[in-house]
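Internal tracking record. Fields below are filled automatically when a chain is submitted to the structure queue. Please do not edit lines marked as system-generated. If the sequence contains nonstandard residues, flag them in the REMARKS field before resubmitting.
Queue: standard
Priority: normal
Entity type: single polypeptide chain
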Amino acid sequence: MTISKSMHIFTLPGWQGSGAQHWQMRWSALFGDDVVEQHDWMQPLRGDWITRLEDVVQSQLKKQPDVPIAFVAHSLGCHLVASWAALSPNVSKVAGALLVAPPDPLQANLPPQLHSWRKPVLNTLPFQTKLVASSNDPFCSVEAAQQLAQSWGANLVNVGERGHINAESGLGDWPAGRELLQSTTHQIR
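SYSTEM-GENERATED OUTPUT FOLLOWS
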């Protein structure tokens, strides 16, 4: 399966970005998905990240106003989607989102660099969403992932023991993940 060429896909890495072997970067190289580069990957301030995402979305919509967009978010990028969706006037242009391995911002050992994310946005997302979780993610229990999925109105997909579903998980190009994205956005052409 392939994603419709009439859709623009934004890749949203999490805290510290995604390295070259991360499936997000591999998808960008293989399929041309646009990686949203943040100004500061190490000190991710929620307001700065939301503003940056809104800037790139607006820029894309000026170029191609009739082309829907989709988000492929990993880790903190999942919370970015929820935070952006609560504020942006452009949510109607989003065909869907694949949210992979969101961390639990309420966990006791949340790194201090993530303090601005401590209070999660838990509004229902106004577009089709799948939340992909792992049963042994060190940053989010399955129960916390279920609560996030329910709050965001997302369909939960548990991929078993895949850690944080990142480069260390050994997923390579992660074709099963691309299929999940396809099934999330297939109704929009």
